[in-house]
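Ticket closed. Logging final result for Transcription initiation factor TFIIIB.
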Amino acid sequence: MKHSTKVTECPKCGGKELGKGKRSGYGAMFPVNKMNFVGAVVEYIICTECGFIIESYVKKPEKFKGTL
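Final structure:
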């Protein structure tokens, strides 16, 4: 599954150079009602000119099925 939309420009500053980053470890995403869950990495599309986070998503969304 492809997570990112085709963003080509920062909506905040108009910058054209974008990058991808990730948050993991203590910054991972965890479901609120599952015990002993290994967190999912959160990835971001970031403007490399102003630092604005354009979009974010978890790497393995299927881990969150049945959590509501």
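Strands lie at 18-23, 42-47, 53-58. No further action required.
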